[in-house]
Structures are given as C-alpha cells and as structure tokens.
C-alpha cells in the first residue's frame, strides 16, 4: 500500500510530457501483445485446418481463396508443396495424369510415414479450379511443382525442374529434401504386372522351344540375331535408357492454346515421342545402307546396279537432311 502511494507521488512529480510518453509505451506494449496473441491463434487455426484436411486426403485440393489464405498469406511455420496441373478431361493433358500419380505416391508415403508432422503439406491447384492463381503467378504450363517456404517468397530453386529431371516420386522426394530438410522414403504399392509379363514371356519361349525341339536351327539364324542386336542399338542410341531413368512425358501440350510439342526446345532434355522419331530415322538409315550394300554386290546389269546405288545414296542423304533439320 505504501509502495503504491509512493509510486503515485512519483508520477505526480513527473513532467506532463513524460507521463504521456509512459502511457503511450504502455498502450503500445498491450497492443503488441494482443497482436502477437492473435497471430499465434491464427497460425494454430491454419495448421489445425491443414492437419484435418491431410487426415482425409494426402493431397489437399485448393482453389484460389484457399491458396491465398493457407499458402501465400502469413503467418506460416510450415512448408507447402503445390502441384499446378490441368486434370480435367477436356484439357487432354496425359502428362498431368502421369505426374499426378507420382505425386500421389509421394504424398501417401509422407502421410503414412513415422516422420509425418505438420511441417510439410502437399497440395494441388487445378487450372479449372484456380485459374486466377495461374494468372497471379504468370504460369502458362502444367504440370509444375513449387515449394513455398515458411518464410519469404519462393526462390528460383523452389520450382522443380521437371523437364530436366522428370517427375518420378523419388526425384521429387530428393528435391523436397534439398529444400526443406524433410526426407521422405517412397513406398510404392505392389505391382505384379512386370512379374506376370516376365512369366508369360518365359512360358512362351519355353513352349516354342518345346514345340520346335526337333528343329532348333532357327536359334543359329544370323539374320535373326542381327535384327535383335539392331533393335537394342536403336533403342539405346535413340535415348530409351534416358527415358527410363528420367521418366520424361511423351509430349507436351500447352494448356493455354492446346499446341502439342513432340520435340523438346532444350538440348538438355527430350520427350518420349522425340526418341521414337530418332529411332525410326536411325532404322531407315540402316535399312538404306543394307539395301545399298545389296545393290552394289548383287549380280546383274552394271547400269541397273549403278542406278540402284545412286538411288540408295539419295535416300540416305535425304534421311540425314531430315534428321539434321
């Protein structure tokens, strides 16, 4: 009681300006404390809502309003991976469907892992549900994967390089680990189609050998083995192994104008259709060389052989020109 009376007397002797300053500082502290409390409540509400959605689906579907509230607007203490896509049938984006399957595998692996927490969420924005988001981010292609960090704006490295790396779940998990330090072990559902196909192939070859057990001369057919070797060479030189490792899309369709591209614009990547085109060109060139050799070594009129030789050279030159341009 005496202490309170002494403080009151001390305030009376202070100048009016000092008293006003103390009152303003006190009001500012109260306001800041209330703002911080409101900010914490808003963050807890956002995290609780995201966790509730994640308990229902591993990938949270978002429209423009949800994206701006939970992904763009502060406060945030969590990372968000967003897949921008166009999955509606009228968009005819086959690459989007394939990428979505890998994205679902990755999100399910995170959702059902022991390390699952509220520090990372997987979301998806479809063009037909959030066209305003695409316009806001100046995005004109799909699919696209972006990471939105807990603080600040996304940087260049926060956009996944799909054209160069591919959209396999393992590659996405590695990229997420680099951006968020969250390591996800990918668990794929069991797929027995490869085992069944191998068993059918072995059964077919075994049955063929059993039926032809008295006449196995075809195994020593040089032409057959040469054709098989050429098929392997064509597959490797056209980039099929690169496709198997990177998992690129077959082609790319621009969701804005619907234009389909079969040739990749960069020298660092390719589409599956592009490798098929190269395979056919290589096969045509090889066939031309074989025909050219047969025309040069066959018996007959020299004039006819020269005519065939000149025709073969013209065909090979034409294929090389097509391949170059």
UniProtKB/TrEMBL annotation:
Record flagged with keyword Transmembrane helix: yes
Pfam annotation, one family: OST3_OST6
Pathway linked to the protein: Protein modification; protein glycosylation
Coarse class of the protein's main subcellular location: endoplasmic reticulum
Name this polypeptide is given: Tumor suppressor candidate 3
UniProt keyword Ion transport, yes or no: no
Name of the gene: TUSC3
Family statement: Belongs to the OST3/OST6 family.
Keywords annotated in UniProt: Disulfide bond, Endoplasmic reticulum, Magnesium, Membrane, Signal, Transmembrane, Transmembrane helix, Transport
């Amino acid at each position: 009681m005496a202490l309170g009376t002494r403080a009151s007397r001390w305030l009376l002797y202070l100048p009016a300006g000092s008293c006003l300053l103390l009152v303003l500082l006190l009001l500012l502290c109260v306001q800041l404390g209330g703002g911080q409390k409101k900010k914490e409540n808003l963050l807890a509400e956002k995290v609780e809502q995201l966790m509730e959605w994640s308990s229902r689906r591993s990938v949270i579907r978002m429209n423009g309003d949800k994206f701006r509230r939970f992904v763009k607007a502060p406060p945030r203490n969590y990372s968000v991976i967003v897949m921008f896509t166009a999955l509606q049938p009228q968009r005819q984006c086959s690459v989007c469907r394939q990428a979505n399957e890998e994205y679902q595998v990755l999100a399910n692996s995170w959702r059902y892992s022991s390390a699952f927490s509220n520090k990372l969420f997987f979301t998806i924005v479809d063009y037909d549900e959030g066209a305003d988001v695409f316009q806001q981010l100046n995005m004109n292609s799909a699919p696209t994967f972006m990471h939105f960090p807990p603080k600040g704006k996304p940087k260049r490295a926060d956009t996944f390089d799909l054209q160069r790396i591919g959209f396999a779940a393992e590659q996405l998990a590695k990229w997420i680990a680099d951006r968020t330090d969250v390591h996800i072990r990918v668990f794929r559902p069991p797929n027995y189609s490869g085992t069944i196909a191998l068993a059918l192939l072995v059964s077919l070859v075994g049955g063929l050998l059993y039926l032809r057990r008295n006449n196995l001369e075809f195994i020593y057919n040089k032409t057959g083995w040469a054709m098989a070797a050429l098929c392997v060479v064509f597959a490797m030189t056209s980039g099929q192994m690169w496709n198997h490792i990177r998992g690129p899309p077959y082609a790319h369709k621009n969701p804005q104008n619907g234009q389909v591209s079969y040739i990749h614009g960069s020298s660092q990547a390719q589409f599956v259709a592009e490798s098929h085109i190269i395979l056919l060109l290589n096969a045509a060139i090889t066939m031309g060389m074989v025909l050219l050799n047969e025309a040069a070594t066959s018996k007959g009129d020299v004039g006819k052989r020269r005519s065939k030789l000149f025709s073969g050279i013209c065909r090979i030159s034409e294929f090389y020109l097509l391949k170059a341009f």
